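Structure (tokenized):
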């Protein structure tokens, strides 16, 4: 059963053929009712200890960020298919492809809307990526 209506689905393989990406996204997600999950920016850190994942590999950091998003959605009683929006913050535009490739593994078939930004810095100097998420768990 479809819980959200996703308009103008696309994959980044087609939209950005010059980049090695495979992300299922869309231009608009409509939801009705349900419980909305508003995330703080998910960072490459342990959710229980707040200890940073000490790596300078943007893809490894992205895996931790997406694992945290998945864990939090599941703790709230939802699934990754309930994601409706992602905002990706990168400290270097060169991290875009490795981060989006990892993100694509977690959102395959989901088609959330997504915005990506390059920023000067994040809250901790070792962080290369932070992802803000919104999900809606249907009634």
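Design, position by position:
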């Amino acid at each position: 059963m479809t819980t959200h209506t996703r308009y103008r689905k696309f994959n980044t393989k087609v939209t950005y053929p010059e980049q090695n990406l495979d992300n299922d996204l869309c231009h608009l997600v409509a939801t009705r009712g349900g419980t909305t999950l508003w995330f703080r920016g998910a960072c490459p850190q342990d959710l229980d200890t707040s200890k940073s994942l000490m790596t300078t590999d943007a893809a490894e950091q992205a895996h931790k960020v997406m694992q945290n998003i998945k864990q939090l959605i599941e703790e709230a009683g939802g699934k990754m298919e309930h994601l409706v929006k992602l905002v990706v913050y990168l400290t270097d535009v060169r991290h875009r492809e490795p981060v989006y490739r990892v993100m694509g593994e977690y959102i395959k078939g989901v088609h959330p809307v997504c915005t990506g930004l390059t920023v000067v810095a994040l809250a901790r100097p070792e962080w290369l990526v932070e992802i803000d998420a919104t999900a809606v768990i249907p009634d």
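Reviewer-requested clarification: The beta strands are 5-7, 10-11, 24-25, 28-30, 35-38, 83-90, 113-118, 129-137. DSSP finds three helices and eight strands in the chain.
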